[in-house]
Amino acid sequence: xxxxxxxxxxxxxxxxxxxxxxxxxxxxxxxxxxxxxxxxxxxxxxxxxxxxxxxxxxxxxxxxxxxxxxxxxxxxxxxxxxxxxxxxxxxxxxxxxxxxxxxxxxxxxxxxxxxxxxxxxxxxxxxxxxxxxxxxxxxxxxxxxxxxxxxxxxxxxxxxxxxxxxxxxxxxxxxxxxxxxxxxxxxxxxxxxxxxxxxxxxxxxxxxxxxxxxxxxxxxxxxxxxxxxxxxxxxxxxxxxxxxxxxxxxxxxxxxxxxxxxxxxxxxxxxxxxxxxxxxxxxxxxxxxxxxxxxxxxxxxxxxxxxxxxxxxxxxxxxxxxxxxxxxxxxxxxxxxxxxxxxxxxxxxxxxxxxxxxxxxxxxxxxxxxxxxxxxxxxxxxxxxxxxxxxxxxxxxxxxxxxxxxxxxxxxxxxxxxxxxxxxxxxxxxxxxxxxxxxxxxxxxxxxxxxxxxxxxxxxxxxxxxxxxxxxxxxxxxxxxxx
Length: 483
Hints:
Udp-n-acetylmuramoylalanyl-d-glutamate--2,6- Diaminopimelate Ligase, Chain: A, domain 1, nine-stranded mixed β-sheet, 23 strands
């Protein structure tokens, strides 16, 4: 794949010196360490480092041209190769990547899913509906297989390359989990979405956004940028849905359990490990059984079903495919302890997600034991909230480490305890996550359930700046703690 620098500049609405027009570009890089001869290097100002510091390195590695922030230095500093100044290099990267890879999302049926909770599950259910062989997936879990650790929505450059590769192997669909951080960072700019889905808005990521209003405003960016022919799907049971629908030029479609929406779930029966309900749309009804328990997963299924409807699937087909859908890795991943107790590994890492999981488990078990912690260098405001929830809903809470990064895990637990202690709930502190899980299982009786929350699918602990190999599910299996 090669493009001329002139063609790429046109995507930015810029003209170049005549002698630069025909410069051949064989790739795009945003990390100087990955530059290869013939690449266009795009310098990004990050939160930790600034790509402009590495222009000389990129040129030394063979970059044929660079894109820089319009406020960067003087022209003489980067005279060695052709350069383009632009107001925002993140936005420029998105457009350049799309143009370089041939605007692949315009040829794919592209679905974006955003919201605080449920994004990953909805994305995987959408794949079950549209067909795994025909669909490429960008989610927290799928990214791990690409060695993109701790990443929900990768850079625009990676998204466009994944979309190009999907077309190259004959796939027809692309499903993208769109994080709130990715939107103001322009990672999905130049992605041509056919459908955007809003799941819910609860407390999370306020360390990045500052407050709930700015958090919502970030989500709304996905819907404001939709084309009029695209579908804007929203969970009408969430109070933010009206803001979502008011913000978009796209065609609205709603789903709900408790409100009068386009698609509804009725006749719901919750069981320990599954949920039975009926899908209702335009006077039609189709019964299904979902292998994911809890009210929150009914809404996740409705979100996915809404995408299926927009794609032209019949309600009966959707119901059948939902019934065949397997549990998503690290999302209500169920085990049986040797004494018969139920053990659940789940990614629940926000107050709302933790509460929903514990409430879904509550009716079917004598006691609940919750093992969780909170990540370091992230939203501190949710720590006491999650402590209060576990103290109120679980008979025993064991507070432990969860990706502490550079923070002291003892201090993180102190902050969780400020919400937990007032509930009077019994709790213990065990920093070592393995020992915390062992303690929980030793305390559990056959009719109890142990929820191990916060890490789900992750196969590492982030300690300091190091990714230390570790998996909740893997530890349970390797130590023979579950059957």
